């Protein structure tokens, strides 16, 4: 006797569409904490509590006519996980609700998101303006990759609004910045740069990783596109890579989606599920990390061996007034420069017991980075000097450990300098 096969039409999106229409949760009036837990949820006929992981490459159709209708757009639904996937869609819907965006596309990594946002904004003959203070791989895209495809780029001091204005050309199509910057935590006036972009008929792309969607809302400040490395705070526990691009529905549909479909940077269903779980605790984790970061910054400020301390939540930050105006808190990152250059910086990091040496950030574990020899090594000594990335500067990503333990750890390390 043959074993009966359970066949559920709900998973071939003919009924999957019905499931989406009737059981997808979302409410524009929800506060961020509720959205992070419930936004974008789709439930299968089994009524699972935790969102389902649709770990599938493709989807089946009841008949050839249904397949044709799906491919020509008459029947909306999933076709192939390189294009879209139910689990990835849930992640995208949740974060777009948090960000206040019309649409979002998940990507395989944060750099895939940056590359997607910029490449979908330009064509050969166009021009891009970017702030000089960028992560090394972001500078590579602007300085090296885009010019290979006939797109010119100009780098400016992001804090100098006049340089942005002066760099605009008739063919300028995109402006790109991160704020706060990596690793020196400069704060760039997003609204002012957005006005310049709008006047030029260009799109402003903002990398919002350091501020997190909880503490800064670039779209509300006038930006057109927001990108995240979801690897950082959104996962926040060192498990997987991911990125996301958020913007208006028309641009995502007309420009971003074809790029995703034909070049393959889409997020995997497994990573989307992990990142969705990360979103559920984002507000709790980041609030605790931010509180501890402020305590560490206050503790280190004015110490004899600390040449420079930069934290956007302090009044002595170079752009403190702007930080208060466009950020809701100082977030989880701080930068400190120790006296004695590279040797002293290495002594400091090697003396730490709890804080681990890593090039990652936004993790549950506190992590420290020496940018000049790691994340910003590739941009060269001259570019580092221009950006204030000295051999003595360190980037500290504050985690979830006991604040007092971390204070004791940095104090011990400082004594080793």
TrEMBL record:
CDD domains the UniProt entry points to: CGS_like (cd00614)
Top-level taxonomic group: Bacteria
Cofactor(s) required for function per UniProt: pyridoxal 5'-phosphate
Biological process (GO), any one: homocysteine biosynthetic process
Keyword Amino-acid biosynthesis: yes
Matching Pfam families: Cys_Met_Meta_PP
Catalysis performed (reactions): O-succinyl-L-homoserine + hydrogen sulfide = L-homocysteine + succinate
One Gene Ontology cellular component: cytoplasm
Alphabetical list of NCBIfam families matching this protein: O_suc_HS_sulf (TIGR01325), PRK07504.1 (NF005696), PRK08133.1 (NF006003)
Protein name in the entry: O-succinylhomoserine sulfhydrylase
Source organism: Roseibium album
Lineage: Bacteria, Pseudomonadati, Pseudomonadota, Alphaproteobacteria, Hyphomicrobiales
Gene name linked to the record: metZ
């Amino acid at each position: 006797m043959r074993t009966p096969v359970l066949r559920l039409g709900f998973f071939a999106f003919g009924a999957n569409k019905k499931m989406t229409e009737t059981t997808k949760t979302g409410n524009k009036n929800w506060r961020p904490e509720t959205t992070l837990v419930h936004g974008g949820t789709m439930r299968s006929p089994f009524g699972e509590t935790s969102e389902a992981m649709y770990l599938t490459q493709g989807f089946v159709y009841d008949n050839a006519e249904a397949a044709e209708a799906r491919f020509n757009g008459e029947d909306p639904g999933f076709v192939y996980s390189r294009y879209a996937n139910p689990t990835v869609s849930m992640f995208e819907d949740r974060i777009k609700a948090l960000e206040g965006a019309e649409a979002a596309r998940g990507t395989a990594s944060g750099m895939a998101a940056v590359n997607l946002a910029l490449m979908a904004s330009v064509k050969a003959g166009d021009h891009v303006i970017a702030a000089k203070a960028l992560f090394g791989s972001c500078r590579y895209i602007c300085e090296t990759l885009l010019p290979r495809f006939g797109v010119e780029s100009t780098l400016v001091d992001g804090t100098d609004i006049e340089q942005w204005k002066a760099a605009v050309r008739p063919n300028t199509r995109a402006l790109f910045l991160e704020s706060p910057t990596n690793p020196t935590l400069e704060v760039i006036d997003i609204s002012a740069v957005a006005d310049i972009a709008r006047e030029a008929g260009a799109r402003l792309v903002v990398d919002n990783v350091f501020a997190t969607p909880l503490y800064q809302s670039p779209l509300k400040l006038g930006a057109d596109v927001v990108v995240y490395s979801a690897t950082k705070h959104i996962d926040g526990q060192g498990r997987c890579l991911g990125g996301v691009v958020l913007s208006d529905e028309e641009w995502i549909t007309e420009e971003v989606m074809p790029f995703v479909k034909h070049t393959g940077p889409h997020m995997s269903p497994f990573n989307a599920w992990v990142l969705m779980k990360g979103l559920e605790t984002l507000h709790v984790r980041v609030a605790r990390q931010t509180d501890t970061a402020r305590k560490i910054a206050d503790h280190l400020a004015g110490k004899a061996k600390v040449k420079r301390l930069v934290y956007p939540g302090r009044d002595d930050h170079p752009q403190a007034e702007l930080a208060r105006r466009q950020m809701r808190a100082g977030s989880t990152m701080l930068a400190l420069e120790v006296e004695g250059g590279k040797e002293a910086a290495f002594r400091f990091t090697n003396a730490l017991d709890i804080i681990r040496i890593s090039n990652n950030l936004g993790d549950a574990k506190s992590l420290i980075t020496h940018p000049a020899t790691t994340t910003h090594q590739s941009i060269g000594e001259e570019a580092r000097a221009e950006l204030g990335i000295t051999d003595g500067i360190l980037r500290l990503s504050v985690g979830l450990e006991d604040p007092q333990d971390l204070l004791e750890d940095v104090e011990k390390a400082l004594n080793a300098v």
